[in-house]
Amino acid sequence: MLNSFVVMAAAPGGAGEIDFSGDWDSVWANLKSGSGFQGLLDLAAGVGVLLVVVALVMWAWKKFTGRNVPGGQVSIVGALLFGAMLCGPELVFPLVLQMFDLVVNAVAKLFDI
User: Fold this and answer.
1) Which of 33, 62, 87, 113 has the highest local Cβ count within 10 Å?
2) What's the rounded Cα separation, in Å, for the pair 91 and 18?
């Protein structure tokens, strides 16, 4: 199963390197060329900013009132990450995919796939 996944994600031309971020760049360029997509990006950025602000206010309120629930930081971190993805998909997705590329390529070289 892993072999077929790695083969599907391999760079064209048989280079053997996995390049998710390059594929994302071409998908992103096609999406941005569509009409009305900038309005959707603006809406997502607004929702992302609102999500980040609400998460930070909730964190500050819990700290101020002393009602720290065990495991409550996880939901705030999740909201911050999701808000960041909505605010800056041009920056966040390529960075995450490049890190994923590094990990998958290292594992592929380690197991000689």
Assistant:
1) 87
2) 20
